[in-house]
């Protein structure tokens, strides 16, 4: 039985500003939207009312021509200025989580050195490769990042400055999941000594997200959705809409709509709607092969950097995968789903190349066209590698014998639930309901465990509950995607009121949750870029 999906109306609490560039100096004027500036935009601070903040930024709409790097710097500057409070508060929660109890004491120092070495390497490569299309686009990502820091510095929250490392940590937090093991090998768990319940908790806390692409039987529509799994401390959400008019001829997408967080220039979830017609999502896979972490070096590009370059440059899934394979860091090892909406003609045909699936681990990226699977009805993703080479090299095969179905691509709980219930999706409401699904008390495939469902809730487990689980859902379809639109909800699922909404009261009140809603009882919000 499906639940009723509601869409919330969002009250407006707009803050606007415009960035200018004169005499080689950037300046900002709050309260003004001026297309003749380098960048202008609007931030809507509504997270406590709807669960989401929204940010709309445009750059390059002036009659005067500026260098692409200046435009991207200005866009970052504007974001850092408008969202300085949210950046500081989110960083507080991230640091409490990343460097808190149970984490290696040397982790921060190790990360700082890695990020410094990696940043030096990138900037050196930019100098060496000024004519390379790839590195020219990466220079835009670097300029955007530099501008973000400068914008915050121009408007520090309560006068509190932040360091470059703080912004590196925020943007690389997905990569940190693997960097800890690469930099501190002794922190890698002994999976062989884990009990079944310990392994299940590890799988949930380190394998992030569920996603689904659903094609209706008559090709009437395609739905594309993603539910993030992470610590609830990371629920400081901003849905972002970027529109950049750039002159670089190697860029395929200039407008981007995506779920994100303060101080983070990528999605992290990931969930992107791109102006190139591509839709991107990912779920995180684990690496049980400890030897692979020895190949992680700072002379590489982190996942967040490669994803941004691929989003800018790629016009199809194959190219997107090839770009992701450039200087693979082997960190934030995911299965990426790339849907090319240009290859789908509703009620007519789905062409080859419509669905491209890419999987990354250290030393290896495997990429392929999986349109044939999609045309059978659906493509699911749930933290188990699809490609046999990735599955085996990651050592899933070596651990599946002991730990069973949750490490099986075909028989994991979510594989069974998606296989059973995807045919019930007939419209957007039923798609949203499936992506919020968690009926663990009655579903035989969940076996009474709230971790074994599409939208998990670790806070509801009877043994060692933690503030971790499915913290959001985002979804779009073909028509909405052409308008850069989606539905999004923040918070763990209540499954039609059967479970209590998550709250920072009670046993989790001492967990850092600065700036976050006290209770997550929100509805879906309709996300659409502003006409500014």
From TrEMBL:
It comes from the Eukaryota. It is an enzyme of class 3 (hydrolase). GO terms for biological process: phospholipid catabolic process. InterPro entries: PLipase_B-like. Coiled coil: none annotated. Keywords: Glycoprotein, Hydrolase, Lipid degradation, Lipid metabolism, Signal. One of its GO terms (molecular function) is phospholipase activity. It holds the Pfam family Phospholip_B. GO terms for cellular component: extracellular region. Its EC number is 3.1.1.-. PANTHER family: PHOSPHOLIPASE B-LIKE 1, PHOSPHOLIPASE B-RELATED. Belongs to the phospholipase B-like family. Putative phospholipase. This is Phospholipase B-like. It comes from Holothuria leucospilota.
